[in-house]
Amino acid sequence: MKQNIVIFLGPPGSGKGSLAQLCIKHMGWVQLSTGNLCRQHIALKTEIGKQIDFCIKSGKLISDSLITSMVEEILIEYMQKDVTLLLDGFPRTMRQAQALDTILKAQKFSCIRLVIVNLSLSDDTILDRLSARLICQNTKCQAVYSLKNRALAPRDVMVCDACSAPVIQRSDDHGELVIRERLKIYYEHAKDLLDYYRQSSHLIKNIVAEGMLDEVFNQLQQAIGLAGI
Ligand code: AMP
């Protein structure tokens, strides 16, 4: 049986985290979010956390080598289980995509299939969504909510539905300047990354992520169904 790794590509605010929550709930997938991993390191004040704190707050990317080394062990552990692994936020650069291929080759995970889900939407929608996005403060949870979208609002004001911890605004969603910096960095890498996958034999599914979450999730389910996952 083929094991699947689904890779979500898309700008900040394209709904990767919210869609991941639905994929976990409805399809039993397992999520590896590098953003969540980074925030866990920062909250736990690990050496890595101290090193990356400023980078995250200012909307910059962590170095390819550091993020790859953070991901490698976890990735290998998941690939030994019979799960569909959802990569949320990794790879983000062509170098990271190459590093992922190298890890999978070195581990002789030959029966792994990569499916790339490419989410696209307008900058205006991104800015609107990110300025209203909230996240559960509990770094083991990090459920995503929205102040503007009723379907994504927490049931109790500023309290996480899943674990009852407070929900907060992410430091890198605070202020248009940081958001624009993250967008700029995303566009700097997006073309090369997508071209890299276009030149590979991996399946790419394009999703318009402009609409409401349930509409986007429907699109995703159809695309994934067609991909035979
Ligand atoms: P996210 O939660 O995916 O929006 O990621 C939040 C922040 O974590 C990013 O703005 C980066 O600073 C860092 N980060 C997460 N994933 C990566 C990655 N693959 N490469 C470099 N930095 C990353």
Range of strand content? 15-25%
Q: Could you state the order of secondary-structure elements as H and E?
A: EHEHHHEHEHEEEHEH
How large is the radius of gyration?
17 Å
Tell me, rounded to a whole number, the average pLDDT.
Answer: 94
Terminal-residue CA separation: 11 Å
What hetero molecules are in the model? adenosine monophosphate
Our count of helices gives: 8
Structural class: alpha/beta
Question: Which regions contain 5 or more consecutive residues with pLDDT less than 50?
Answer: none
Largest sheet: 5 strands, parallel
Percent helix: 40-55%
Shape: globular
Number of strands: 8
Overview of the structural elements:
By secondary structure, this protein is an alpha/beta fold. Helices cover about 50% and strands about 15% of the residues. The protein contains eight helices and eight strands; from the N terminus they run βαβαααβαβαβββαβα. The strands form two sheets. The protein has a five-stranded parallel sheet with strand order 2-3-1-4-8, with helices on both faces. Strands 6-5-7 form a three-stranded antiparallel sheet. A hairpin with a 7-residue loop joins strand 5 and strand 6. The protein is globular, with a radius of gyration of 17 Å. The model has no long low-confidence stretch (mean pLDDT about 95). Bound molecules: adenosine monophosphate. Adenosine monophosphate (AMP) binds next to helix 2 and helix 3. Adenosine monophosphate binds next to helix 2 and helix 3.
